[in-house]
Amino acid sequence: MINKCLFPAAGYGTRFLPATKAVPKEMLPVLTKPLLQYGVEEALLAGISNMAIITGRGKRAIEDHFDNAFELESQLIETSKEHLLKEIKEIIASSTFTYVRQNKMLGLGDAILTGKPLIGNEPFAVILADDLCDYSDKGIIANMVKIYKKYKCPIIAIEEVPIEKTQKYGVISGKILEENSDLYEVMDMVEKPSPEKAPSNMAIIGRYILTPDIFDILKTIKPDSNGEIQLTDALRVQARNKKVIAYKFKGTRFDCGTVKGYLDASNYFAKKISL
Fold first, then answer.
1. Model confidence over 171-223: pLDDT tens digits?
2. By CB distance 3.0 to 4.6 Å, which of 80, 117, 125, 174 could disulfide with 184?
3. Beta strand 170-176 pairing with 183-191
């Protein structure tokens, strides 16, 4: 039912300069895999094989990574290092990759809208590669797909954060949808509220299941004070007009859009390997 996953990957990654001057932020490695590959693997675990990627100028390395490298493969064939390419070759064989460029960086909402030609008129998943998550089952998106199949409405992933950090996130207010569950019916949401104005400490993280009507709503959303179109504002419209469900993520998440979060993720996964 969910056949496509959209990956917004057009940002400049200015927090990681000068490293991201020539290398896309999404291609920065956590151990031996780039951030974007972790997201693609999560989508595949959910049974999604069509990867729609929003890129920008200077992002050619993304396309090259998810493509065959005949020269490299010929050098490694029948050597002790041949197995090192096995994982990415399996991903390439299992997936279809499509790309479109976001010409200007005008916010996450604009990035989603840019992806409309790749998505068409069907529900779809969204993964923000910056949010690197560790999980014990088939992953956040797989769980969200199951929830979508039951409720047939937009699903957003949330996580409790310290109240003093709400200004970094979209924050929801909601009510428990099912007793003893991790699901909330969203009543309202606010983009990056100050702690004193935050409706809760439940923050939206970079996993979504969206319905195609989001595209028409995004066209009506006015830019914020920074000139950006916020996805949160469009989801707020949907929450008022129909049901939007928030799924409380269980697991460990790292904000790899920050240097500290990126280093924490690298240390965390390195320790897992060493155990």
1. 998 888 877 678 999 998 888 889 998 889 999 999 999 999 999 999 999 99
2. 174
3. antiparallel
Instruction: Tell me the HSE value of 205 on the side-chain side, using a 13 A CA sphere.
Output: 26
Which whole-number Å values give the CA distances from 246 to 1, 112, 165, 181, 269, in the listed order?
19, 19, 19, 11, 27
- C-alpha 257/C-alpha 132 separation (Å) is 9
> What is d(CA 262, CA 130) in angstroms, rounded to the nearest whole number?
9
Residue 64, number of CB atoms within 10 A of its CB:
11
For residue 250, give the nearest of 127, 126, 154, 135 by alpha carbon: 135
User: Residue 268 burial (CB < 10 Å; 0-12/13-18/19+)?
Assistant: middle
- Best CA proximity match to 144, nearest among 48, 30, 52: 48
Fold (CATH) for 4-274? Spore Coat Polysaccharide Biosynthesis Protein SpsA; Chain A (3.90.550)
Highest mean pLDDT among 45-54, 127-136, 234-243: 45-54
**pLDDT per position as a tens digit, 71-113:** 887 887 878 877 778 888 899 999 999 999 998 888 899 999 9
Q: Where are the domains of the chain?
A: 4-274
Helix axes 86-94, 35-45, angle to 10 degrees: 50
The confidence score (pLDDT) of residue 170 equals 87
**Burial label, 26 (beta-carbon count in 10 A; 0-12, 13-18, 19+):** buried
Residue of 9, 106, 93, 120 lying closest to 58 (CA atoms): 9
Residue 258 predicted with pLDDT over 80: yes
Alpha helices in 81-173 (DSSP H): 86-94, 108-114, 116-119, 140-151
